[in-house]
Amino acid sequence: MSQEWFEVEPDETTWMQGRKVDHTYASRGFDLKRSGSEDDGAPARFVYKVFDDEGHESSEVVFDGAVWPIAASPAGRSQIKLLVAREADHIKDLWIQQFKMTKSNGVQAGNVFHLGSRDAQALCQ
Known about the structure:
This protein has helices at about 10-20, 115-125; strands at about 25, 30, 45-50, 60-65, 65-70, 75-85, 90-100, 105-115. It is mainly beta and about 120 residues long. The longest helix is centred in the N-terminal third of the chain and has 7 residues, at about 10-20. The model has no long low-confidence stretch (mean pLDDT about 80).
């Protein structure tokens, strides 16, 4: 399929705006490039799920003595992004992203939280 209809390759913000809440999206597969990793060269893909703020208020969670604030995205949309290699349960990275307001009153996707390989795998088990 030709992508000639794109003048510029869409960025993370454009893709995040166009995703539907009731869908889970997966990128095309590609070979993971992580030298020194046992997964270097393994088939991988990104998996995405978006969530819209539906009027939820900010809150906080106390876990193991630490207080973690939870706030709605100022622009109303959040996304979980996973990098999966080899098999569906082999998570290499996990990001939580939110729309952030720009100075020109636009929106831009930005990382709120990131877990690398071991931490992402532990969280998801």
